[in-house]
Amino acid sequence: xxxxxxxxxxxxxxxxxxxxxxxxxxxxxxxxxxxxxxxxxxxxxxxxxxxxxxxxxxxxxxxxxxxxxxxxxxxxxxxxxxxxxxxxxxxxxxxxxxxxxxxxxxxxxxxxxxxxxxxxxxxxxxxxxxxxxxxxxxxxxxxxxxxxxxxxxxxxxxxxxxxxxxxxxxxxxxxxxxxxxxxxxxxxxxxxxxxxxxxxxxxxxxxxxxxxxxxxxxxxxxxxxxxxxxxxxxxxxxxxxxxxxxxxxxxxxxxxxxxxxxxxxxxxxxxxxxxxxxxxxxxxxxxxxxxxxxxxxxxxxxxxxxxxxxxxxxxxxxxxxxxxxxxxxxxxxxxxxxxxxxxxxxxxxxxxxxxxxxxxxxxxxxxx
Length: 368
Ligand code: B12
Hints:
Layout: H1 16-24, H2 26-38, H3 43-47, H4 52-72, H5 75-91, H6 98-113, H7 116-131, H8 133-139, H9 154-166, H10 169-179, H11 183-206, H12 212-230, E1 243-248, H13 256-267, E2 271-276, H14 281-291, E3 295-299, H15 306-317, E4 326-330, H16 332-336, H17 340-343, E5 348-349, H18 353-367
Helix pairs in contact: 1-4, 1-7, 2-4, 2-6, 5-8, 6-7, 9-10, 9-11, 10-12, 11-12, 11-13, 13-18, 14-15
Bound molecules: cobalamin.
């Protein structure tokens, strides 16, 4: 994703205590912003055809997102998100005028609920967002998230997207049965068909061309397909000590990336526990204590889940039982922001699941 402007956020910095206050007062501020916006006479013009609950959801995501941005002091993330926000919501009929108005409502709430010292710091962030309004309108198109498809796989990827959109599970099985006949081809199918097809589904959702229900249908079909494709390959014997735990972080519902990684690790001889989406930090720690894996792989897609991811990584690093464990993070948001993995305290990252397998192999070799 493109930044809203080159210099956005260069002079911004929020103290840890102000960021904590923003988080602790969050629910009260959210309620206030929702009230202020809902009471406006022009609210239906600002929201287009959308019901109020869409705005409430949007405001709730905004709160979690800004809380993460200011805790991590990562304004690159914010600079890249603004065009995305403008593109996504205006594609769904929100007026561009919604954004400055809701930002002003947040500033009012911040002023009311935060101490003056904290409010002053956080309001600087909001003023910079407000100042970037015209640039965000201008660059909205660059907020689209797309993935280049390998030429050799384009036709199959197209057929897959079509089958996902028409709810044609039989067709999906047919494509998979035709294309996968070895471990190598399963990896290709995952990375060159499944991943770009799902990015395409996201693109169509973002541009308002498909509904949330259609996006959900596509996801559940892909989940079903992946459950069946994996069983098409005979189980590879795993090395008993080469243990890996793979999961999506707490509050993270996106799980296909983690699942692809888990499947491909298993096919390369790793002994994998795949914990799935939205795994609470405390539960992960308990599981790690019991199983003591060598590799912990955490998938995170949404920027509003970064702080919980950092907490998990810190807890692992602070525990002497886990001294030899290596932590990898990856997923959409990690790929979007350079060095973010380092700032989260991880030992490494990889842009895609096949690169992650190589890194895991290398780590295991170094250990021997
Ligand atoms: C399916 C989907 C959903 C499903 C997820 C269900 C499920 N069971 O997974 C549902 C409907 C729940 C969902 C919800 C939301 N979604 Co959604 N979703 C998607 C979609 C269409 C596909 C995701 C996917 O499966 N991708 C395919 C996988 C294979 O790709 P991947 O995750 O990048 O994984 C690869 C690499 O990143 C890497 N990798 C992944 N994990 C790891 C881990 C490690 C350790 C390593 C090394 C590498 C690695 O390897 C993988 C294979 O190469 C994406 C579009 C997209 N571009 O991804 C939007 C998308 C991610 N969603 C988006 C949004 C906004 C949301 C919601 C906020 C929407 C809402 N208003 O409710 C919520 C947030 C929920 C939450 N709390 O997490 C946006 C995020 C934009 C952004 N930059 O923040 C996207 C990008 C859509 C878009 N184009 O705008 N979503």
